[in-house]
Amino acid sequence: MKVDQIYTGCLAQGAYYIESEGEVAIIDPLREVEPYLARAEKEGAKIKYIFETHFHADFVSGHVTLSELSGAPIVYGPTANPTFDAIIAEDGQEFKLGNVVIKVLHTPGHTMESSTYLLQDESGKDYAIFSGDTLFLGDVGRPDLAQKGDITQDDLAGFLYDSLRTKIMPLANDVIVYPGHGAGSACGKNMMKETVDTLGNQKQMNYALRADMTKAEFIKEVTDGLAPPPHYFPLNVKMNKEGYDNIDTVIEKGTKALNPDEFETVANTVEALVLDVRHQNDYIKGHIPRSIFIGLAGGFAPWVGALIKDTKQPILLVTDPGMEEEAVIRLSRVGFDNTLGYLEGGFDAWKTAGKEFDAISSITAETFKSRLEQDTLHVFDVRKDSEYASEHIDNAKNASLEFINDYLSEIPKDEPFYVHCAGGYRSVIAASILKSRGFHNLIDVEGGMKAIREVGIPLTDFVCPSTLKK
Fold first, then answer.
1. Phi, psi of 197 (to 5 degrees)
2. TM segments (predicted)?
3. pLDDT surpassing 50 at residue 413
4. Which secondary-structure segment (H or E) carries 459?
5. Same domain, yes or no, for 213 and 160?
6. Can you give the residue range of the structural domain that contains 249?
7. Is the pLDDT of residue 466 over 50?
8. In angstroms, rounded to a whole number, what is the distance separating the alpha carbons of residues 382 and 426?
9. CA neighbours within 13 Å on the CB side: how many for 201?
């Protein structure tokens, strides 16, 4: 028996490859499925089942394409209602895979169809659970995404409490936990950085698995402090439930090379969003006016989903040479399939063609410190509210990136203002959005809070009255 976790850092997502006696099961595959097919072929094995833990909201799974190419059926837990052919398993149903068994444990709460898959080894011993978004390491799945009709988030949290205590916690402490996500995912609040653990350790470490916890306490703690889900979540659920275009079709359309004149014409004709995915340092030095920066080197896909509200938005790419297909694939992972092409020759070709370009004013933390000591500055901290609350520059205002458009009325239009984040990535995203909205009087603080600490700028650790209200 082989069990491999295929972890994708930019999505904080875990897919799984399980093999026994030449038969393979894939759990929660990514949109691009060729690696699973190639792996099975290399091992001389055949994909027998594709298991989905639930209808994912934060990414588009590869289940539909993988089923078409491999012939393997898609398996969901009870109550799932996809529009394509699938096996809707019963609670407790077992699937034979070589010499091992995968058992369905219906664990509603994150969503109503959410299921955990229990892997039993060759001897019949419980070996591991693939818990999807039911149980994370250090946390559990958020219960607010599947509210429908009379079912509230408190109802879902109550179902989750029962699922954990009747289906998962009774399992032996040495059972391995393979979760659907790790730290950085928007599907939970307090996930650990580790991606594999034992159930026994989780019973000790995970607040939601406290043995003496009442259902009322669980509901309160699990629902407290939930941030609003990103706008793209329901759109991804729809795609996972109803199907989508083959990834090869999306790549072919998205990797069409456009010279600067063609690129400009398409952008103006279809009102495409120009998305610059280079490093922030390159974007600062020069970029196409009104383009939006979200760099591949950071949390690319989640930030695309959080900031671009419509997955059908036409997109044109500015990339480093050779990174066009990577950008298209990573956009497709979160349901953005309408990429129309990329700027051939990159930004250098745009400049060489004599096209207009823009830049962002940026200063070092040392220069910023000097200016703070000499004058009262308008400073906007675009980190999350919780980051700001733990530590921030005195009199800086919090304008968290995910809600940056809600703060436009608070930002000065006629005098300089400064933006920073933790390390420099998010502040440049914010700067690109603000410049596209006509705010050209901004100055980015290079290196963000990391550099600010290093130069000794005084910080405060409580939320002051200057915090902006959404």
1. -155, 175
2. none
3. yes
4. strand 459-460
5. yes
6. 245-352
7. no
8. 7
9. 14
